[in-house]
From TrEMBL:
Listed SMART domains: GAF
Catalytic activity: L-histidyl-[protein] + phosphoenolpyruvate = N(pros)-phospho-L-histidyl-[protein] + pyruvate
InterPro entries: GAF, GAF-like_dom_sf, PEP-util_enz_mobile_dom, PEP-utilizing_PTS_enzyme, PEP_util_C, PEP_util_CS, Phosphohistidine_dom_sf, PTS_EI-like
The enzyme's E.C. designation: 2.7.3.9
Class in the EC hierarchy, top level: transferase
GO BP of this protein: phosphoenolpyruvate-dependent sugar phosphotransferase system
Pfam families: GAF, PEP-utilisers_N, PEP-utilizers, PEP-utilizers_C
Taxonomic placement: Bacteria, Pseudomonadati, Pseudomonadota, Gammaproteobacteria, Oceanospirillales
Alphabetical keyword list: Cytoplasm, Kinase, Magnesium, Metal-binding, Phosphotransferase system, Pyruvate, Sugar transport, Transferase, Transport
Family assignment from sequence similarity: Belongs to the PEP-utilizing enzyme family.
Ranges of residues in domain GAF: 17-164
The name this protein goes by in its record: phosphoenolpyruvate--protein phosphotransferase
Recorded GO CC terms: cytoplasm
Gene Ontology MF terms in the entry: kinase activity; metal ion binding; phosphoenolpyruvate-protein phosphotransferase activity
Length: 753
């Protein structure tokens, strides 16, 4: 037990938030005590009641709905007396109260212990079991120890205001995260989960119980045919006794028993995979305890059958494109670029995920596609969100669940205002990006997806400032070959010709993993990333360079950009490979023009090597997303520190100004292609610093163009001077807000509260 205890404590302490800690804890306790139910009730001082906050085993819908006044029911009694209560037949106790919502009439045994921190009662931890069971001393000691552990975590959460009430029972609830892609949307939450095994199936409340039952039956049907086919195949090769095992399997699946139980669990409010996992777990636990070899072996059979049925359930992912609602707001623990591709674009209205931050790559792709997105929503109660009406505010990083009529009306008018503004700005999109005093700053776009190659854009931009080649690589199942890549790159180059297109060589690693080339590192952003990977794999880089060069034949609008450069030797090596690719093609009779070559300035070391780099390349492109994370030592993906991640930090502004001045002195063009370029205030500062072009997601163009067309260069230079004298990021933001307000441009800034 001690080992289990230590592990649970470690997991709870390492959980990303209180919700996750509670959910881990009840699951682990249930498993360790081999019992049916484990629940946690929080004491609400205002209500003087205990509220069911987390459970595994009782119906999930009961969370937030079961409220017990202090002293009432068994849980209330444990709390009032601040003492454990251990009952073999709970129903016989005079204080027993039955809550229909929990479905707990099935549970006979009850063990509840109070959670106490510095003499204050904070809640109650309960385990229950269907059959009569006398929890023994060791069980009681274990639960008391877990409760003491939870007490510290809870007290901390209460003190820091991180404790969330389960406000989803029916009322409106609001959750905060990191604003990752602007815009607002109303729609229906669609929770997506990656495939899992029986032990890690998440609990989800189904939107449509009949649909869940139907797909369960279908999965069982498929498993039965599979077993029948296996038996037929083996009939001539194995003994009759062994063959009989297949009959046992068929019976288990055929007998109403298993299917009925799983169906019952679905009707209690668990989706099909979760219900299956619950039932299998219960049977396995029971059979493993029995003192009979034959029955113990059946436990393995049930587990095996469970796995097979689960595999079929996961084949038909619950949300196929046809079943997505017309206004889907995709919600998940972690949403990948590949998952994005599964939902038809016209149905996808918003994205929400527990992990990630504003510069994680899914955010970048979402911005490019113009999908409002909020990431890093660490407190989101995923299991209870499926099918809920939601309102997403990608500007302020908020998700409202079951919004009330007032809030809905407010957002309807905000959305209408935003549409009106974008229509207004649309009128000037074909006008030059030049200031009123005649200074012209080319605006470029960042691309990565085929949909970006938009003919409409061509007349409005100076070219493509960053084509992220890893994006198409992320949605294939293997490295695309030279021919495939040539076609991909040709589409981009042709789509934008004669405008220049800057193609960056593969920038994988960090948070950009390819499914077929996983890089598992403790510290991935400081590890094997970008050029470090491709220089170690010249065979991959050579194919890419050859494909780019071939794709540019007769168009000659290609520039090549190398990412994550830290040392000058890396540039020398990359250039050597580029020259070799040109030579090889020449030998094959294909003559190509040598493209312009640039390096990303995103590792702080490069700030101090501008002279050496300038001797080797034609242009610089500043990756402010990475430069911010590396200069400030703030992981761009970690929501816990996202408030520290700020591209307008005085240190960044200082570095950017120096870079622009260095590039000017060295007579090299310098662009900036990080997210800062798409921020109208940031763009004005970058223009004043002397950046020769800015590259951004297409949806950011209208507001940045509008800012440039309204602010004379001399005013922007004055603003830069003022801002450079400020000491903190907060002062910088406040000053920019004030100035833009004065210039009547605050409508271009992201809305705030
Ligand atoms: C950057 O780092 O700013 C950049 C443009 O590249 P990425 O976001 O793809 O790392
Ligand atoms: Mg980068």
């Amino acid at each position: 037990m001690l080992e289990v205890l230590r592990r649970v404590i470690q997991e709870v302490n390492g959980a990303r938030n209180l919700d996750a800690a509670l959910s881990t804890m009840v699951r682990r306790i249930r498993k360790a005590m081999q019992t049916d139910v484990c629940s946690f009730y929080l004491y609400d001082k205002e209500l003087e009641s205990l509220v069911l906050m987390e459970t595994i085993g009782l119906r999930t819908q009961a969370v937030g709905r079961v409220v017990l006044p202090l002293g009432e029911g068994l849980v209330g009694l444990v709390a009032k007396r601040s003492e454990p209560l251990n009952l073999e037949e709970a129903q016989m106790h005079p204080q027993f109260r039955y809550f229909e919502a929990t479905g707990e009439e099935r549970y006979s045994s009850f063990l509840g212990v109070p959670i106490i921190h510095q003499r204050l009662m904070l809640g109650v931890l309960v385990v229950q079991q269907a059959e009569k069971r006398r929890y023994d001393d060791e069980d009681e000691a274990f639960l008391v120890t877990m409760a003491a552990q939870l007490a510290g975590v809870l007290a901390h959460a209460l003190a820091t205001g991180n404790l969330l009430r389960p406000a989803l029972a029916g009322g409106q609830a609001m959750f905060k995260g990191v604003a990752a892609s602007p815009g607002m949307a109303m729609g229906e939450a669609v929770v997506i989960t990656p495939p899992s095994d029986l032990n890690s199936v998440p609990d989800l409340v189904p939107n449509d119980q009949d649909f869940e039952v139907a797909r369960l039956k279908e999965a069982i049907g498929k498993t039965r045919s599979e077993i029948r086919a296996a038996a037929e195949r083996l009939a001539s090769r194995i003994s009759a006794q062994e063959l009989a095992l297949f009959d046992v399997y068929q019976q288990m699946l055929g007998e109403a028993a298993l299917a009925d139980e799983v169906e019952k669990r679905i009707r209690e409010g668990q989706w099909a995979p979760g219900a299956l996992a619950d039932v299998v777990r219960r049977h396995v636990q029971y059979l493993e305890r029995v003192d009979d070899n034959y029955l113990r072996e059946r436990a393995a059979d049930i587990r095996d059958l469970g796995r097979r049925v689960l595999a079929h359930l996961q084949e038909d992912t619950p949300s196929t494109p046809e079943t997505y609602p017309d206004n889907a707001i995709l919600v998940g623990d972690e949403i990948s670029v590949a998952m994005l591709g599964e939902v038809p674009r016209d149905k996808l209205k918003g994205l929400v995920s527990v992990r990630g931050s504003s510069t994680s790559h899914v955010a970048i792709v979402a911005r490019a596609m113009g999908i409002p997105t909020v990431l890093g929503m660490v407190d989101l109660p995923l299991p209870r969100l499926g099918g809920a009406p939601v309102l997403l505010d990608g500007h302020r990083g908020r998700l409202f669940v079951r919004p009330g009529p007032e809030l809905k009306a407010r957002y309807e008018s905000l959305i209408a205002e935003e549409e009106a503004l974008s229509e207004l700005l649309e009128h000037e999109q074909d006008l030059p990006s030049a200031t009123p005093d005649g200074y012209s700053l080319p605006l470029m776009v960042n691309t990565g997806l085929a949909v970006d190659a938009n003919a409409l854009l061509k007349s409005r931009i100076g070219g493509v400032g960053l084509y992220r080649t890893e994006v198409p690589f992320m949605i294939t199942e293997r490295f695309p070959g030279e021919k495939e890549q040539t076609k991909l790159y040709r589409d981009q180059l042709e789509g934008f010709a004669p405008l220049p297109v800057v193609m960056r060589t593969l920038d994988i690693g960090g948070d950009k993993d390819l499914p077929y080339f996983p890089i598992d590192e403790a510290n991935s952003f400081l590890g094997w990333r970008g050029m470090r990977v491709t220089l170690d794999h010249p065979e991959v880089l050579m194919v890419q360079l050859r494909a780019m060069l071939k794709a540019s034949i007769d168009l000659d609008n290609l520039s090549v950009l190398f990412p994550m450069i830290t040392n000058v030797e890396e540039v020398d090596e990359a250039l050597r490979l580029l020259d070799r690719a040109i030579l090889e093609l020449g030998e094959e009779g294909i003559t190509v023009v040598r493209p312009q070559v640039g390096v990303m300035i995103e590792v702080p070391a490069t700030i101090y090597q501008m002279d050496s780099l300038a001797k080797r390349v034609d242009f610089f492109s500043v990756g402010s997303n990475d430069l911010t994370q590396y200069l400030l030592a703030v992981d761009r993906n970690n929501p816990r520190v996202s408030s520290l991640y700020d591209a307008l930090h005085p240190a960044l502004l200082g570095a950017l100004l120096e870079l622009a001045q260095d590039a000017k002195r060295l007579n090299k063009p310098i662009s900036l292609c990080g997210e800062l370029a798409g921020d109208p205030a940031g763009a004005l500062l970058l223009m004043a610093m002397g950046f020769t072009s800015l590259s951004m997601n297409a949806p950011s163009l209208p507001k940045v163009r509008a800012a440039i067309r309204r602010v004379p260069l001399s005013d922007a230079e004055q603003l830069l001077e003022e801002v450079m004298a400020l000491d903190t990021p907060a002062l910088v933001h406040a000053h920019l807000d004030n100035r833009l307000d004065e210039w009547q441009l605050s409508h271009l800034m992201p809305p705030r509260d």
